[in-house]
Specification:
alpha/beta; 9 strands; TIM Barrel
């Protein structure tokens, strides 16, 4: 590619990002905050994102997940979830940051240009077997719930337990129904294949795989097969493509082109309305194929270079997530 072509592509990507409503459906950065590794309110060189860098990157809504690091001792999981919630609320108090509690908040952000942040639970361990705890976390601002991480919990089997062919438990079905009735987005990433089908076949509203990639491109257990993506598409859901190298390729150099390969295949299967971003930032060490939120333009340049239309890229960047949030949150 000639220098002039590169410069033109870079300029076009910058303009597209400036116009876009950008949603990242999953990041694990709260883990660093609650464990005292970083202050996400300050711009730092370590980690993949923080509040200042999110603002500089023009992110419209960042979903921040509470990771069930107490899953081995689930009796303490609810308390751990409250600590995550406290850290999230501290970020929401920063100037120019809005806690996203409703679709109306997302609409408002279009005008105010604030940074929206949304709280997610990445695992049913936090509920400790009680629907009342789900209600409590909703009142504290949680608007997304992933039913499992890799292991088994009281809701379902995760991908690491796939050999059991176990899906949702009775409590898992109860949580699915109650979460959707309250307007919480249900996330099937990390769920066993049997659990995935339990959710898709019983969901009354769209669900997402917030940070999963394409099994056809790389046959990792965390990635969705084409028939799973088709089922997700058919109920109005979406797949959020992850930047985590573990889910992108098994060997060889993993670059922004690898991420684009997964996006292109997902678009082929899901259609232009069914693909989003779920960076999984701060869940992996090292820079990865997209070193930080500041490097999002590199991905847009790659997609433009492949001939993907501007309007489709804008859908992937956030408009598809907006559609799902509107359907779920009302």
């Amino acid at each position: 590619m000639k220098k002039t072509d590169r410069e033109e592509l870079k300029s076009k990507a910058a303009e597209l990002l400036k116009e876009a409503f950008i949603v990242d459906g999953h990041a694990s950065s709260l883990f660093d905050a609650v464990n005292g590794l970083r202050d996400l309110r300050k711009k730092e060189e370590t980690g993949h994102l923080d509040i200042p860098r999110l603002k500089e990157a023009g992110i419209s809504c960042q979903v921040l997940a509470a990771f069930p690091d107490q899953r081995i001792r689930p009796i303490r999981a609810c308390r751990r979830g409250l600590i995550y919630s406290d850290a999230f609320h501290s970020l929401a108090e920063e100037p120019g940051v809005r806690m996203v509690l409703s679709y109306a908040d997302l609409e408002a952000i279009k005008e105010t240009k604030e940074l929206g942040i949304m709280f997610a639970l990445e695992g049913g361990e936090f509920l400790e077997g009680e629907i009342a705890v789900l209600h409590m976390f909703y009142k504290l601002g949680a608007r997304v719930i992933g039913l499992t991480w890799d292991e088994r919990n009281e809701l379902a089997d995760g991908v690491a337990e796939a050999m059991t062919r176990g899906g949702l438990t009775r409590f898992g079905f109860q949580v699915l129904k109650e979460a959707q009735s309250m307007g919480m987005l249900v996330d099937v990433s990390h769920l066993s294949e049997a659990g995935f089908w339990d959710v898709v076949e019983n969901a009354s509203l769209p669900v997402v795989a917030s940070h999963s990639n394409c099994h056809k491109i790389y046959a990792h257990p965390r990635n969705l097969k084409d028939e799973e993506m088709e089922a997700l598409r058919d109920i109005g859901g979406l797949i959020g493509i992850s930047f985590n190298p573990s889910y992108l390729a098994g060997s060889g150099e993993i670059t922004v082109s690898t991420v684009a390969d997964h996006i292109e295949h997902a678009l082929e299967v899901m259609g232009e309305d069914g693909v989003g971003l779920g960076s999984d930032f701060d869940s992996f060490s090292g820079p990865g194929p997209i070193p930080s939120v500041a490097h999002l333009p590199v991905l847009v340049e790659e997609l433009l270079n492949r001939g993907i239309k501007d309007e489709v890229i804008k859908k992937v960047l956030g408009l598809n997530y907006l559609r799902v949030f509107r359907a779920v949150m009302g």
